[in-house]
Every structure is written in C-alpha cells, then in structure tokens.
Amino acid sequence: MWRVPGMAVWLFAAPSLAAQWSVGGEVGMLRFWGTAVDTTTSQDPASTRPSPSTSYALRVQRRFGALGVGIGILYSRMGVGAENGAVAVEEKGLVKLYEIAPEVSLLVATPGPGGALRVHAGPVFDRWSPIGGKDMRRVGARAAVALEWLLGGRWIGTLQGGAAVSASVLRAEDLPAEFAPRATWRRGLSAGISLRL
Predict the structure, then answer these.
(1) DSSP assignment letter at 94
(2) Which domain holds residue 34?
(3) Does any domain span residue 124?
(4) Residue 15 domain-assigned?
(5) How many domains does one find in the chain?
(6) Strand 155-166 versus strand 20-38 pairing type
(7) Kind and range of the H or E element at 11?
C-alpha cells in the first residue's frame, strides 16, 4: 500500500495544535472518460474506459479555523466499457479501485447558519485491481467543492462534487494494437454524513 507523507502524519498527530476533528462516510457516483482511444480512425473513434460505478468512502478531517487537512479512503467496483457514437459495450465487475487521498481544504463561504462551502485539493494514490489480473498503481490529483450543513448536535451533512486525473488505468499491452492509452479523468458526486469529535 501507499505510505502517507510525514507532514500529513505530523499535522494529524501534533497535540499542540488546537483543532476540530471529524469523521464521516460518503456514498457517491463515479463517471470516467479518457483512458484509451482508437488511433486508426479520425471520425467517431472508439474509446474505452472504466464504467460508471458506485463509490464508498471514509473521510477523517482536522480543521484549523478556515484551513483543514484530511484523508479519504475510497472503494469502488466497476466494469470496463468501449463505445463510439453508435454502439456501447460493457463488461461488468472487472476492476476494483482502492484509493487513498490526502487533502487540504479551505473555507470560502458560509451560506447560512451552520453552513460551509469548502474547496479541497490533493494527490490521489490509486490501486486498480483487475479480477484475475495484475494490480496497477497510479498517482494523480483531485480537486472538489463541498457544501456542509448542520443536521443537529455534532452531526454534519455533506454534498461534494469533484474531479480527478491520473495516467491511463489501462496498460498498452492490455489494449488492442489500434488503441493508445490516454489520461484517465474521473468526476464524482457524493453525499455523506460526518460527526464532529
């Protein structure tokens, strides 16, 4: 697995920093584009990419006023699809995605009592595990916007939308000769609930 950078460990562990902890869970939807494209035709080329999937994430955060640090752990299982303008084919349940995503956040607005609009950014460390195949590790970047609101007591609701990019999650040797790898882009939308500790 991936190692968490030393600075992130220090920020989470430093006892002298007055801060607010929270831990929560999220359920979301991922959609992908890019990944690989047919280079033999210029008109309506076929492309292949991971299929849309449901994601499950656990997120731990620590806030220092308007600034924050956090780490998310995400899991999703998906198929692989190929399509052009006329036909789409998908084989389901081929790949599992495990992701570790350290991040920094910044409060940009407070829409209403107890509300918060934050931007998040950071690297992503992905392990793609094809069923019956060899694991692939990719490093990428992610940015997101999150709207938070108080649900009552220490409970907080969250709606988050973002995008991530990494090198292609398909290897050239796993593709037909006419296909070339491209960067894999991902957008996601999730809803969750967290508890302030």
Answers:
(1) E
(2) 20-196
(3) yes
(4) no
(5) 1
(6) unpaired
(7) helix 6-13
Pairwise CA distance, residues 67 & 77, whole Å: 32
Q: Which residues pair with 156 in a beta bridge?
A: 150, 194
> Which residue spans within 4-87 are E strands per DSSP?
20-38, 47-50, 53-64, 67-83
Provide the token pair at 17: 């920093």
Give the pTM.
0.82
CATH of residue 83: 2.40.160.20
Residue 66 lies in a domain: yes
- State which amino acid sits at residue 7: M
Q: Is 156 part of any domain?
A: yes
Query: How many CA atoms, within 13 angstroms, populate the side-chain half-sphere of residue 181?
Result: 12
Q: What is the pLDDT along the chain (197 residues), one digit of tens a residue?
A: 455 555 444 444 444 445 699 999 999 999 998 888 877 777 767 788 899 999 999 999 999 989 999 999 999 999 988 777 777 777 888 899 999 999 999 999 998 888 899 999 999 999 999 888 889 999 999 999 999 999 988 999 999 999 999 999 887 777 777 788 889 999 999 999 999 98
